[in-house]
């Protein structure tokens, strides 16, 4: 799904630019995964498995980087939009818990 097909909703979670950047990164990962699927379908030799493994590892790393990008953007946006220090702390604690749970 290209970001041209998605309506970017304005809100307080992420800025429009952060969403656009993240969607672009995810679209590249989607293309990378389609390439991995083709490699799997065409794998005939043991060396082909090496190539598939390498591309899977690269896609996994790219997805991990997009997770970091998501959290970094959320930290910047939500802390910047906080009404006071307590709200910023609560937001930071919530995002830290997400990092601990999903990373």
CATH class: Mainly Alpha
In the predicted model, the low-confidence regions spanning at least 5 consecutive residues are: none
CATH topology: Methane Monooxygenase Hydroxylase, Chain G, domain 1
Overall geometry comes to: elongated
In CATH, the homologous superfamily goes by the name: Metal-sensitive repressor, helix protomer
DSSP strand count: 0
Largest sheet: none
Q: Multimeric state of these chains?
A: single chain
Overall helicity: over 70%
Number of domains: 1
| Secondary structural class | mainly alpha
CATH architecture: Up-down Bundle
Written description of the protein model:
Helices cover 79% and strands 0% of the residues. The protein is elongated. The chain contains 3 helices and no strands. It has helices at residues 16-42, 46-81, 85-102. Helix 1 (16-42) packs antiparallel against helix 2 and helix 2 packs antiparallel against helix 3. By secondary structure, it is mainly alpha-helical. It has a single domain, classed as Methane Monooxygenase Hydroxylase, Chain G, domain 1.
Features:
single chain; metal ion binding; 103 residues; Metal_Tscrpt_repr; mainly alpha; DNA binding; Methane Monooxygenase Hydroxylase, Chain G, domain 1
Give the topology.
Elements: H1 16-42, H2 46-81, H3 85-102
Summary of the model, kept short:
GO terms for molecular function: DNA binding; metal ion binding. The chain is an all-alpha fold and 103 residues long.
């Amino acid at each position: 799904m290209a970001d041209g097909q998605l309506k970017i909703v304005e809100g307080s979670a992420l800025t429009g630019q952060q969403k656009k950047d993240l969607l672009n990164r995810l679209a590249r990962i989607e293309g990378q995964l389609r390439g991995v699927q083709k490699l799997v379908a065409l794998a005939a030799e043991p060396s082909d498995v090496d190539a598939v493994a390498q591309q899977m590892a690269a896609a996994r790393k790219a997805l991990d980087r997009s997770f970091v990008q998501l959290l970094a953007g959320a930290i910047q946006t939500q802390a910047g939009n906080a009404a006071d220090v307590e709200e910023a702390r609560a937001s930071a604690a919530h995002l830290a818990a997400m990092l601990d749970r999903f990373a």
